[in-house]
Amino acid sequence: MKRTFSKLFLTVALSLGTVAISSVSTNIMAAASIDIQSVLQQERVWAGLQTKRLKVGDIDWAYSEGGQVGKPTLILVHGLSGSRDNWNRFARNLTPYYHVVIPDLPGQGDSKAPADFEYSIPNITEKLRRFAEAGQFEKDAHIAGHSMGGAVALLYTAQYPIDTKSLFLIDSAGVFKSANTPYLKDPATLRNMVVAKPGDLDRLLNIATHLPPFIPKELKDSQEKMMISQSVNTSKLVEQLILMSKMYTPDSFAIATRVIDQPVLIAWGDKDQIINVEAATELKNLLKNAQAPIILKNVGHMPIMEQEQLLVQPYLEFLNKYK
């Protein structure tokens, strides 16, 4: 059975295949054509976020920023083929209390990267650090990452421990012993998650969410066209993930993970078809200071969009301990 969402603004996102699709008020949906960028901008405002840009080296970063500067900073990292807008519904609950920064990663969303940009996790992590330094967001930051963004957030925390206060991993990518989905046993299947032609978005929704949402056709078509236009960069990211799975073993991944001393919160959907829920316990056992994972019932790979309200209170309580 499919769910119909009726909130004024709703972002449905897929990550390790993430996509931002917004459901809007009746008067907007009645329009003959939908300007999805305008819709997303309205959703950011609803979440207490402003759109900003920052040029750092050869990358032109687009990012959302909200909350009061001077309060503890949260940096939220989206997943493969996603954008900062994947976090809007979740961030709406954070901006009243924290300084929230959500970048579009290089070559994703509205951020621009050179044609020869290297889309490896280490390089993306290093560029994220340069972005944080340029924006003066790096000191005493709390990092959160979903899916591929979880791998970036984990590596960022390991490499910059002095400036990182806590880590939140949501259905995080990694190289696991316990994960046994087709997408990890045969990483080449990740190529099937690239939205490269009409119809691919429906297939991706069925993979990444447990109960695929109803989305108005005009919005779905508009978002699918946008994702098709970005499919070249998405494919480069996928190839880097496949390469990572060949270069690293669960043991080498464990070595990198065990150096993290920061407090860690882990959350997972128990119906995740991309990275199965057993990986949550494996991560917890690798990390020195991780709480018991939050396992969300009947939720797929996209907790921040499928059931974000179930994560808000635990995350706020976690953050309150480590301000």
Question: Which percent band covers the strand fraction?
Answer: 15-25%
Please tell me the overall pLDDT. Answer: 87
**Count of DSSP helices?**
13
Number of domains: 1
Write out the strand line-up for the largest beta sheet, numbering strands in chain order.
Answer: 3-4-6-5-7-8-9-10
The CATH homologous superfamily is named Alpha/Beta hydrolase fold, catalytic domain
What is the correct CATH architecture? 3-Layer(aba) Sandwich
What is the CATH fold-level name? Rossmann fold
The parts where pLDDT drops under 50 for at least 5 residues are 1-32
What percent of residues adopt helix (DSSP H or I)?
A: 25-40%
Given helix and strand content, the structural type is: alpha/beta
Q: Would you list the SSEs in sequence order as H and E?
A: EEHHEEEHEHEHEHHHHHEHEHH
Silhouette? globular
- CATH class descriptor: Alpha Beta
| Sheet with most strands | 8 strands, mixed
What gap, in angstroms, lies between the N and C termini?
41 Å
User: Could you tell me the number of beta strands?
Assistant: 10
Radius of gyration equals 18 Å
Domain AB hydrolase-1: 72-306
Pfam family, one: Abhydrolase_1
Keywords: Hydrolase, Signal
GO molecular function, one term: hydrolase activity
Structural summary, described in words:
GO terms for molecular function: hydrolase activity. Keywords: Hydrolase, Signal. Helices cover about 40% and strands about 15% of the residues. With about 325 residues, it is α/β, with parallel strands linked by helices. It has a single domain (about 10-320), classed as Alpha/Beta hydrolase fold, catalytic domain (Rossmann fold), CATH 3.40.50. An 8-stranded mixed β-sheet has the order 3-4-6-5-7-8-9-10, with helices on both faces. Strands 1-2 form a two-stranded antiparallel ribbon. Strand 1 (about 10) and strand 2 form a beta hairpin. The chain is globular.
